[in-house]
Amino acid sequence: MNIAIVAATEFELNGIAKKCNSAKHKIETFIHGVGLMASTYHLAKLARGNPNLIIQIGIAGSYTKTLQLGEVVFVKQEILGDTGAEDHNQLLDLLDLELQEADAFPFKSMMLENPMQYPFFNRLKKVRALTVALAAGSAQTIQLRQEKFKAQIESMEGAALHYICLQEKINFVQCRGISNYVEPRNKTNWQIQLAIANCQQEVLSFIQSIS
């Protein structure tokens, strides 16, 4: 099986290639860049090679304290968090603006959902993620996004993976380690290295489980 492991930054990949000693699979790693624009471009190029599976790893902020710092989650659904408009004290998505139908492929109810079932990941919490260009760092932004989208986590690239793989019919996995809570910005509370290490370990175990 040809497997591509991708991340926004070299720091998130952090030597995982050396740990992927598998006689059963061809494994390559790619950095797709930070944000929706860079990740879409590089993931689209990667998809042209038609890998059997793309695994996106990385960190994420959590909107809920039910997720622990360092915990690894499986992203089941992705939402575009800041594509639309702001109308005073509410956010409007493309459906609200009548610019997109809710179930226009590859969306389902305005979400990009991973249709695959991976029994290995049943032990992880399955979450809805919000992909944003601007990470939330103020109480007002956090409240507006929570009220509108009801997502559990936030990142800057996940929707690109879901959108491209659904369009190109490529199997995919998105795993995120929780590095921080989405709150008024306070980096002293972040656990980035723990989140990355745990995320990598889950993905390595998953690859070893694939026959």
Structural notes for this entry:
The model has no long low-confidence stretch (mean pLDDT 95). This protein has helices at residues 10-13, 16-19, 36-47, 139-149, 158-168, 192-209, and strands at 2-7, 26-31, 53-62, 72-80, 84-87, 90-93, 112-113, 125-131, 153-155, 171-181. The protein is an alpha/beta fold. The termini are close together. The strands form 2 sheets. The protein has a 5-stranded mixed beta barrel. A two-stranded antiparallel ribbon has the order 5-6. The protein has a single domain (2-209), classed as 3-Layer(aba) Sandwich (Rossmann fold). The radius of gyration is 17 Å and the shape is globular. The chain is built from 6 helices and 10 strands; from the N terminus they run E-H-H-E-H-E-E-E-E-E-E-H-E-H-E-H.
